[in-house]
Amino acid sequence: MKAPAKQAKAGEVKMPPFEVHTTKSGLTVHAARRGPLPLVAVRLILRSGSTVDPVGKEGLADFTVRLMRRGTERLTADAINEAVEFVGASLGMGSAEDSISFGTTTPSEHFEPMLSVLGQVVREPSFLAAEFETAKSRTLAQHANDLDDPGTVAERAFLRALWGDHPYGHEVSGGERSVQGFTREDVVRFHKEQLGPRIAMLIVVGDVDPKVVFRAAERAFAGWTGGPEQAPPPKPRTVAAASGQVIIVDKPEQTQTQVRLGGMGFAKGTQELFPARVMNMALGEGFTSRLVNEIRVNRGLSYGVGSHFETLRAGGTFSISTFTKTSSTKEILEVALAETAKVRKRGITATELLRAKTYLAGLFPLRLETNEALAGARAELMLYGLGEDWIERYRERVHAVTLAQAREVAGKYLFAQPPAIVVVGNAKQIRKQVSRLGEVKVWSLAEVA
Known about the structure:
The chain is of the alpha+beta class. It folds into 2 domains: 19-220, CATH 3.30.830.10; 245-448, CATH 3.30.830.10. It has 16 helices and 12 strands. Strands 1-2-6-3-5-4 form a 6-stranded mixed sheet, with helices on both faces. A hairpin with a 5-residue loop joins strand 1 and strand 2 (28-33).
């Protein structure tokens, strides 16, 4: 009998030990036994996602994956729901830029039958014509509703401003125009060509023996074929597509302006993450950050403002997000640019550095308390090649950040190139305010649909 894993000391962050097995179908399985609760978290992750959406069919990955929940060759949608609810489990799925994921959380005693259900959903979805048409109608209705939300419009336009025609330049769910063109044949083809065991990994964490996991995985995914031999290589971008431009998405009825500013950052896995996170806590991520203090507290320009580094497989971005009344659009942009420039040129203070490191290091262990969180963390490590020690050395690397390192990443990523600026609101009232901030372009709502 295998000895139990050593318990982490106070202040340490430890991943449970994983055992790895590859099934006959080519699926890699990672299993870690963890109690004491009789629960198991399962995540099936594929190295795919919206980056492999066909041109003109943006959103197809997400649409296909969600439709898979609506029935298999042996189970109707109602039968799937009943199987999940009867044992008190959950079953979900979705797509992101770099991945497609399926997951279930189940009581330990029902692990094997729930894994069987998951295997059927993944291997043999039925894609019934009636279910396809219903899903398409609902998706189109959701996209139409999204155009009423200026925040959602801003995010869509901002993606395009940053990434242009890059695969990251569209919403994971696509848009109204692309979804209108979906056919059932598109969905069937996507499932066959883009979902397969050789680009997939099954992560299981919880109160179940890894040997049981491996045997159950062999049965649940037996005969799974299709999909690519390996994930396509990433396509990097180094400069924002709309660098130096101000894009106004015209919504004449708005009395407020949604505001986004952004430029290119770095890919997932780079060691620059640690000084960047620390620096950004001081600039705009923390509750007492400079952007919050200057925009919300001191000037009352907005109730909310924040800055963020997004990191993905092919690259990343740095962005600032806020909103304000139409008449103060120019002021909030100027303040955001000025505060960012201060940190870019001079870095952050020693007090800010210490506060940010203490907060980030203290918060990190709370993210890994559940089986679901640990399964997700393992999946991220494997998906992005972060290294086995990424989790356990995370806090050490945060504490090691110096003022010089924080200043270096600020100089590199805080709009060293002119940012792309996106504002959503009344173009007639906004245009004159922003005319000196860059080349102004006005988009209609139809251009971001």
